[in-house]
Design brief:
elongated, Multidrug-efflux Transporter Regulator, Chain: A, Domain 2, DNA-binding, mainly alpha, homodimer, three-stranded antiparallel β-sheet
Chain lengths: 143, 143
DNA sequence: ACTTGACTTAAAGTTAACTCTAAGTTGTAG
DNA sequence: CTACAACTTAGAGTTAACTTTAAGTCAAGT
């Protein structure tokens, strides 16, 4: 089974434009051409795009991804580099997740804050303020 | 306690340049000025920058953050909008975390794949290939 | 008084990753 | 056989978020 650039684009969620751009940047050296010069994409290329998309989604630049692709093309002599590439990138992604989770905590706090502010009417909030003031006064008096 | 633009930049992890840029974009309408026109940052401003940084870290654009800041400046009439703003953004961040975790799975798979490829010598891999071929043959014969 | 360093502004420059344009070729449906 | 959509290329344009530059002001130290 083979695909044209737009069929393939649909499959992997990229436009033909972006695929040509990726090819120009050296990310797709494995893509074949038809006798008339059209790009012919295969099932195997989907797997390549899955990993490229994964790296892209985790913030890796096109240049860095190219380094990995070049290693893949170079054959078994680069297995160790590729291993370390993923081990290093795993750390980056772990840090990203941790950062997002810390932000999530702040967002949850804000949601709780605004939820309370909304369920409480203005007069209730003012009443609460008055109660607090009363208690402060009593403390000061020594009661 | 108040801070100059560079002291404050150190505190919140941004350069004076970036702080001025944020102000120009309308993200910091709460920052005061000294009699000579210098920006004077306070402790309270740190809290503002914490939430701005949180929104920025979770992929929100400067323009979107400005919408939130404008609501804050407008007072209590925007409490409900602000509540929904965070509820909506929470969904975005949850999706981001989910996506990163899916990528993490692929990265872990790759690490495992390359680890195996490295611990196995080439001859071992070739032997494994031969064994598989033998088994295929036996199946075909009907053994 | 003078130098130094931090501040001010407006505006131009940078970078990555697309995204689009223009000009031309190819292949299939009517 | 002709229209028309989809493909090809090189190269220019776009966008966001900074980042730097240029030209100038201000306040503190020697």
């Amino acid at each position: 089974m083979s695909y044209s650039i737009s069929e393939f684009g649909q499959k992997v969620g990229l436009t033909p434009h972006t695929l040509r751009y990726y090819e120009k940047e050296g990310l797709l050296p494995f893509v074949h051409r038809s006798s008339s010069g059209l790009r012919v994409f295969t099932e195997k290329d989907i797997e390549w795009l899955v990993i490229i998309t994964c790296l892209k989604n985790t913030g890796m630049s096109v240049k860095q991804i190219k380094v990995f692709i070049d290693w893949c093309m170079a054959g078994d002599s680069t297995l160790e580099q590729r291993y370390h590439f993923f081990v290093d990138h795993k750390k980056v992604v772990q840090a990203q997740i941790k950062k997002l989770e810390a932000c999530m905590d702040k967002i949850n706090y804000k949601i709780e804050y605004y939820r309370k502010a909304l369920t409480q009417t203005t007069s209730e909030r003012q009443a609460h303020e008055r109660t607090c003031l009363e208690m402060e006064k009593k403390k000061l008096i020594g009661e």
